[in-house]
Amino acid sequence: MVIAASIALSGCGASKDDDAASTAPASSAAPEESESPEESESPEETAAPPAAAGDVAAPGSKVGLGESQTYPFVTGGAGTEKAVISVKMVSADAASAEQTAFLVAQIPQLKGYKVTLLRLEQTKVSGDTIAFDSDYTSFDPVDTEGAKGQLVSVIGWDDCTTNSFSTEFDTAGAVLAQCVVGASVEGGNEIAGVMWDGGWAEPNPYDEYDGKPLLFMK
Asked: Which stretches of sequence are listed as region Disordered (predicted)?
């Protein structure tokens, strides 16, 4: 059962004419619109913010399928907890015809898009207690050039789930599975991986606008 589903139309790759927001079915949230930032000169290198014990990847680092990178997690809002988390992308596969049809039924704007399911595995390396927090919103799909792609937000879909940090993840080294849904249009660059944008870190050298996100490519 899907609780909510939406697509933030970014205008990446080939254009679509149906980028106006519209009301989705009862089980879906209204789509949101966003635009990709204009290209700008690369910012100067910024050191990663202080984190829990453990090495973290340098901003802009890129790895392949099944390869891990560690990053500094900081809780959002008024939180001050810090941890080091390891993550790897374990698969990047096209959605099946049935899965695509289901998503199109939830989000009509997806018709004509190629949907890709990007699956991640996270483990906690060290740091403060972070159970029941999360950072899956810090991951976005990227295309073959490493540029931010089209994100499809789906809540409550068993075929591609996102999860908050469990107690077992926080204290017992359990692996936590995450899934990101990306979409590409005919004639545009295909979805080929994910980026991690630094989340709530401040300063944030991994920011997609002012820094260099971590890349996980197939």
From this structure: 10-61
